[in-house]
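Researcher: Re-running this chain for the archive, since the previous output was lost when a drive failed. Same request as before.
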Amino acid sequence: MTERLSAHSIAQVLQQCYDAPQIYIGYSGGVDSHVLLHLCASIAALKVKIMAVYIDHGLQAEAAAWASHCQDVASTMGVGFKALRVNAYPVQGESPEEAARNARYNAFKSLMTANDVLLVAQHREDQLETFFLQLMRGSGLRGLSTMPHQISFGRGVMLRPLLDVSKQVINHYAQTHDLKWVEDPSNASNAYDRNFLRNEIFPLLKQRWPQCDKTVTRSAKHCADAQGLISEQAQSLFVDIFNKNDQTLCISQLLLCKPSLQVLVVREWFQVLHLKMPAQAFIERLQSEVISARIDSEPLLSGQGYCVRRYRDKLYCLKGDLLSSIIESHWPVGAESIRLSSGQRLSCLPSSTGISMAQWQSSIITIKARRGGEKIRLPGRQGSHALKNLFQEAGVPPWERDTMPLVYLDDKLAAVGDLWISAAFYSEQPDDCMRLFLEKEISGIE
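Model: Regenerated structure tokens:
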């Protein structure tokens, strides 16, 4: 074994950590994370910044004992410690492994402030496993690129300092330093795909190809390089097709691209929206059933917790947890905002134009849902206008219209969400007006 692992070697990898306000280390108590913690704690300049973080997924009866073990180890090493409990039970469309990973990463993100660093102990065999899992799922270049050494994470960065280190070297370090770690019994269960590869497949592969972890990692690097070039092309197309304001794609611009380039743009879109990459079959249906549909149609395609639909010349990607209906409610006296039953929050903000503050404060304010047939007279325009026509004129998608709150002052329609104010209530008095602001509170695209 020619590879060596030492505090000196890890210090070279962690140069940027010296300026970090806080260094979090994902510490499960297993051998990999124990070795990482031991290495980092042996570097005096880093030790004072380290916080070992144990995540209890709520899935193992031994979790409390493991947390206690981790706390004892951290105390012995003289570093900070924090234990967090998460809900790692999968929702529809999530595998158990994916649910646990998402819960764990969300917990880490909740801790991090600007420029903090999270260190995780994934190593070269983890890269090997990830490559094969992505291969068996039919992933493209992005998936086969596996895990990067560094990524933006929350308000800081995540580093994988052991990613080029073999499992054998990690185990040798642990034994040499007489480290004591915990063994997760679930690692022996081949019910999990990753464990099946680790326990059954890779021992056979390594008998024939002892260096397969190195060679596969090299192939993953080639995939990452190729994906980088493709991403550059996709981004150059994407910038002219993507609308930042509503996070939509312009269909007419998208149709100017060849079908193969449309795929790149759609995948870039999902990447920007922080959504799971769509399967090839989903993209093919998207191209044939939605993108190529008649301009006056409103097709919908659902999958993996979201739906893609078009309205006019725009392609929308919406989370599965769409807004609920609005239940009539009264605005609390003196309140600056109100949470609606639809999962939205409507706030009033100081403004130089809008509804007179005095009129707002002296009225009974009621929030109602659309019933159909409502009309409003707008400042600077003649006559009254049906809301239906205004929505069409403004290009408001049909699925957003029924969740647009109508604001009544003393039973008179004063405003339509934050879109329009009735001429009867409109005022231009600097420092004596307020305007409305509507935002979505329920979980959605990040």
